[in-house]
Write a structure and sequence with these properties.
Blueprint: H1 8-25, H2 37-57, H3 59-62, H4 71-105, H5 110-131, H6 140-159, H7 161-187
Helix pairs in contact: 1-5, 1-6, 2-4, 2-7, 4-5, 5-6, 6-7
Length: 188
């Protein structure tokens, strides 16, 4: 297994590009809003993608609970492991549909650029996730985890409230898992 740190270069370049897009989005004037049913549907796709990303992100916490004393947590951990990759790719597909609509059918505005920045990080995250098994390097999982954490601020800038809601929901699930684990350990 290679220990070359060159695998960090593409992820760092993509993070810099995303930061540049997000920074530039603050310089653009806000465009007028047009409401249509298709626009609302595409916004809903983006919101669903945020929650799918949060579901996939839960794997970070539940990965350590695979050897838990609690049968419930073991089963939840196995379930999250099985849906981690599928929910990540589903989030990518939904965001792609969401982004293509807003990129082609709305004028260039700050939300579009911050969305491109978030999509850049998500695409890198998915790319490193796919390449993790093919490229044997000790840093691949670390990069994948780092990109998943780096995706959060870009999403917060772009989506705002739905990111906060999904983060609170994830935190509540992690808190409940902690309580179940603690109760299981105390009862033995």
């Amino acid at each position: 297994m290679s220990s070359s740190k060159r695998v960090w270069i593409p992820s760092l370049l993509l993070l810099l590009a995303a930061a540049g897009l997000c920074s530039y989005s603050f310089l653009l004037p806000e465009a007028r809003h047009v409401h249509s049913s298709l626009k609302e549907a595409m916004t809903t796709l983006g919101t669903a993608a945020v929650f799918l990303g949060a579901l996939s992100f839960l794997w970070i916490r539940f990965k350590s609970l695979r050897r838990s004393e609690s049968i419930l947590l073991k089963k939840l951990s196995k379930l999250l492991r099985s849906v981690h990759q599928a929910s990540g790719y589903a989030a990518l597909a939904l965001i792609l549909a969401h982004g293509v609509y807003f990129l082609f059918y709305t004028s260039l505005q700050p939300g579009t650029l911050s969305g491109l920045a978030a999509f850049t990080v998500l695409a890198a995250l998915a790319g490193y996730g796919m390449l993790m098994k093919r490229i044997r390097n000790v840093h691949m999982r670390t990069i994948h985890r780092t990109l998943s954490i780096a995706w959060i601020p870009f999403l917060l800038i772009h989506a705002g409230g739905s990111v906060i809601l999904s983060a609170l929901l994830s935190a509540a699930i992690c808190g409940a898992a902690w309580l179940v684990e603690r109760r299981t350990l105390q009862s033995r």
